[in-house]
Amino acid sequence: MKQYDNVMIFDHPLIRHKIAILRDERTSMKEFRELVEEITMLMTFECLKDGVPTTEIEVKTPLEVCKQQVVKDDSIVIVPILRAGLGMVNGVHRMFPSAKVGHIGMYRDETTFQPQSYYCKLPCGIEDKFVVVVDPMLATGGSACDAIQLLKDKGCKNIRFMAIIGAPEGVSKVAETHPDVNVYVSTLDRGLNENCYILPGLGDAGDRLFGTK
Fold first, then answer.
1. pLDDT digits (tens, 9 = 90+) for 118-129
2. Which residues lie below 8 Å from residue 38, measured CB to CB, with a gap of 6+?
3. DSSP string for residues in 5-32
4. CA 93 to chain centre
5. CA–CA separation, 98 vs 27, rounded Å?
6. Is residue 109 flagged as an active site residue?
7. How many CB atoms lie within 10 A of CB 94?
8. Which of 47, 55, 126, 152 is most buried, most CB within 10 Å of its CB?
């Protein structure tokens, strides 16, 4: 796959370890959800390294008063792409419990494989926030691109996208369609099958998160 300045593929032994368990068809729904949350937490450190609004405050230590940088209140919004993206929200919230949450609902047309939007509910003032869009699977890139464009149409300018498993086709599409959006993927897989599912992948993330199959 072509290298993109706005794409980071994680190469961390702890994430690789957790991905191996995540892929296993024998992994329980409970453990699957926990692993998705843990991997998201690890990715959040890097995703929020740059561009997060901060402010300076004074802190009194046992020895003296010093100045520290803290993340501004009410500056971060998590936007999961429904429904599988919900599984990643707690991972970001563990790092930033006060982050607000918006929701974008999309489903894949099983004939055309194109995303169809059916729901959108976003916090007021999102155009001025640091927005983190999350979806465990980045397959064709259609849903991710449409969700990002929807946010841009709402005035959002500071957007990040996080996925746990990505296919080269989807990563390339998002990177090229939205070169101003940083894309974070924990693992890059081989590619897509004839039904546009990621290989080797981990199956349907939504079904495995919520026990619907």
1. 899 999 999 999
2. 18, 91
3. TTEEE---HHHHHHHHHHH-TT--HHHH
4. 12
5. 31
6. no
7. 13
8. 47
Catalytic residue among 23, 27, 33, 207: 207
Active site residue 55: no
Q: Is 108 a catalytic residue?
A: yes
Question: Taking residues 94-102, what's their average pLDDT?
Answer: 94
Choosing from 26, 61, 73, 112, the catalytic residue is 112
pLDDT confidence of residue 113: 65
- Tens of pLDDT, residues 151-168: 999 999 999 999 999 999
Average pLDDT, the chain: 93
Choosing from 108, 177, 180, 189, which is the catalytic residue?
108
Active site residue 189: no
Q: Which residue has the tokens 């169809």?
A: 116
Strands (E), 10-122: 54-60, 65-71, 76-82, 100-101, 103-108, 115-121
Q: Are 143 and 120 in contact (CB under 8 A)?
A: no
Residue tagged active-site, from 27, 33, 74, 204: 204
Q: What domains, with CATH codes, occur in the chain? A: 7-48+77-210 (3.40.50.2020)
